[in-house]
Amino acid sequence: METLDNVKPGDQLLVTSNRGPDTIVRVEKVNPKTVTTTSGARYRKDTGRLVGAGTWDAISAQPATPDDAARVVAQVRRRRLLRELRSLATADPSGYSDEQLRAAVEALTGGK
Length: 112
Description:
Layout: E1 12-16, E2 23-30, E3 34-37, E4 42-44, E5 60-63, H1 66-89, H2 98-109
Antiparallel strand pairs: 1-2, 1-5, 2-3, 3-4
């Protein structure tokens, strides 16, 4: 794991957690021992671990690469699409026209 010794305000950090998806945050302030993000979280510079995290919480930050940022953006888009699809699945389609129903079935089945 990389340390946060060389980050400066405005840099992006990749935050990983055992409790949720990875996120990208921006550095707001750098102190001698900690780094504060724009969300208010503080991370230890020497380990990257979240200050105040419990023993079971594996929340840490490291400098984000362009690949990290692209991966997180793709994950966020995928979660949003899944949420939208799930909301469509629970919607009542009885008010749709025949053409709308046909288009929805074709889109979901690949035109089969």
